[in-house]
Amino acid sequence: MSEKPVNIVPIPAFQDNYIWCMQQENACIVVDPGDATPVLDYVEKHQLTLTDILITHHHPDHTGGVKELVKNFPDIRVIGIDSSRIPYVTHKVTDGDQVDIPSLNTSFRVLMLPGHTKDHIAFYGDLGLFCGDTLFSAGCGRLFEGSPEQMQHSLSRLTDLPSDTKVYCTHEYTLANVSFALAAEPNNQDLQRYQEWAQGQRKADTPTLPSTIEEQLAINPFLRTSSEEIQKTLSEKLARNVHESLDVFTELRRWKDHF
């Protein structure tokens, strides 16, 4: 009898967070549980055993529920970067490490992605990319600790992944990101179509995630610094030539922070 596929479900938390839950049979793992209550409710409703927690970075809306989940599941593994800012980590990882998840018969490779924070990581495997707050649909994370150069390099590591890679980020920021993207590249027809689709998803109270790397390369301005239209928009806005990739990225991020 073949093994059942892994089911990936977004558990909503706070105003716009998703806690991604991967489940197979009666076992599950979660990514970035900022709040324990919706996870415990989901696990109880579906009679699941939580075996692992994956943490991408230290921000409270990604780690705030860990303490309570560890209390409820004493044998659980908490997998994250070696940082005093992330308590309860039982398995410390760094760039290039392989993380085996026996309960789901799968594994992930750890990618170090400084930018949003200096010690942000992602988990990439056959199930997809769980990238925290580095890459969003049509956007990227704010630069709280890293530099534009670091973030652009981190994003380039993600765009080097196979184009059909599913992208599971942790916030439902899509419509706001698309509004900004259209300000930067108003004639992008892929982006126009994506906005219509995303509006329909949210109107139906359905997530806009996951996306794919291929889709993001077509619509995400932070991955499209070579776009002549984006360069023209920025050059006109700033009254100077903006063409070099890092300059384009830096000015896009600065603009988005105040959009």
Describe the structure.
The protein has a domain at 1-94: 4-Layer Sandwich (Metallo-beta-lactamase, Chain A), CATH 3.60.15. The protein is built from 9 helices and 14 strands. By secondary structure, it is an alpha/beta fold. Helix content is 35%, strand content 25%. Strand 3 (27-31), helix 1 (36-45) and strand 4 form a beta-alpha-beta unit. A 6-stranded mixed β-sheet has the order 1-2-3-4-5-6, covered by helices on one side. A 6-stranded mixed β-sheet has the order 7-8-9-10-13-14.
How would you summarize what this structure contains?
This protein has about 260 residues and is of the alpha/beta class. It has helices at about 35-45, 60-65, 65-70, 150-160, 175-185, 190-205, 215-220, 230-240, 245-255; strands at about 5-15, 15-25, 25-30, 50-55, 75-80, 90-95, 100, 105-110, 120-125, 130, 135, 140, 165-170, 210.
The radius of gyration is 19 Å
Q: How far from one another are the termini?
A: 53 Å
Helical percentage: 25-40%
Helix- and strand-based class?
Answer: alpha/beta
> In this structure, how is the largest beta sheet organized?
6 strands, mixed
Q: Helical element count?
A: 9
Within the CATH hierarchy, at the fold level, what is the topology of the domain at 1-94?
Metallo-beta-lactamase, Chain A
Element pattern in H and E: EEEHEHHEEEEEEEEHEHHEHHH
CATH architecture of the domain at 1-94: 4-Layer Sandwich
Let me know the number of strands: 14
Q: Any idea what the shape is?
A: globular
Going by CATH, the homologous superfamily of the domain at 1-94 would be Ribonuclease Z/Hydroxyacylglutathione hydrolase-like
Task: Give the rounded overall mean pLDDT.
Answer: 97
